[in-house]
Design goal:
The chain has 230 residues and is α+β, with helices and mostly antiparallel strands. The protein has eleven helices and seven strands. β2 and β3 form a beta hairpin. This is DUF6456 domain-containing protein.
Length: 230
């Protein structure tokens, strides 16, 4: 985090949120206090874990406050840091020791809440992510994921499986699903659905044209929906 470089608008937005402003989506767009915000700025701050919340509103996170303290950002100021350290959310973060991340908000739920993917595509992504987690794709101790959708249809997990058998079954389903969509779309699914990487970050990493990632993701989710018989 110490090496992260923010743009001017990103720094000003984060500083405004450090003053207690809540970032909300309004009729004219996103706004936090006196600052307006672009989708790209929000996506990047979310990807860096500097802000947290729901698809409807965001607040600065514990890591976001720590980032401003380390950088000694002029827009935040030491007195601001001392003041906001007493905020209820900061006290809660201190008690917990670490922020738990709800990946249903990043970015699959984000797109679904805005109506940019269908209910079927969203459910397909949830099922894929559930198998990814069940197969040991990411340490569960550091993440707070929404409960997986109830298993239904021909690819439902049989009852009575031993833990090792469930892991094996989830791994097999995950690999079969990723094989079905193909290498490129599978990489987009892995980045955005499974590990919660921001769309803009995924596009850059995969050297895709700007704003083309969602098209790739939607096509991949359609195939995943077919795989899970949705």
């Amino acid at each position: 985090m110490a090496q992260t470089v923010l743009t001017g608008p990103e720094k000003k937005l984060l500083a405004e949120m450090a003053r207690g402003a809540v970032l909300k989506r309004r009729h004219a767009g996103w706004r936090a206090g006196t600052r307006s915000a672009q989708d790209a700025d929000i996506d990047r701050l979310r990807a860096l874990d500097l802000i947290e919340g729901t698809p409807a509103e965001y607040r600065i996170s514990g890591p976001g406050m720590a980032f401003l303290r380390r950088r000694q950002d002029p827009d935040s100021g030491n007195r601001l840091m001392a003041k906001t350290a007493d905020m209820p959310r900061a006290r809660e973060a201190a008690r917990q020791g670490a922020r738990r991340v709800n990946r249903a908000e990043e970015p699959l739920g984000w797109l679904h809440a805005r109506g940019k993917i269908t209910d079927q595509q969203f459910e397909a992504g949830q099922k894929l992510r559930a198998d990814f987690m069940a197969a040991g794709g990411m340490p569960r101790i550091t993440m707070a994921w929404d409960a997986a959708p109830a298993a239904t249809g021909r690819r439902a997990v049989p009852d009575g499986l031993l833990p090792g058998e469930r892991i094996t079954a989830a791994k097999r389903r995950f690999e079969e699903a990723m094989d079905l969509v193909g290498r490129g779309p599978a990489e987009m699914l892995r980045r955005t659905v499974c590990i919660g990487e921001g769309m803009e970050t995924a596009e850059k990493a995969m050297t895709l044209p700007v704003r083309s990632g969602r098209v790739v993701l939607m096509m991949a989710l359609d195939r995943i929906a077919d795989f899970y018989r949705l």
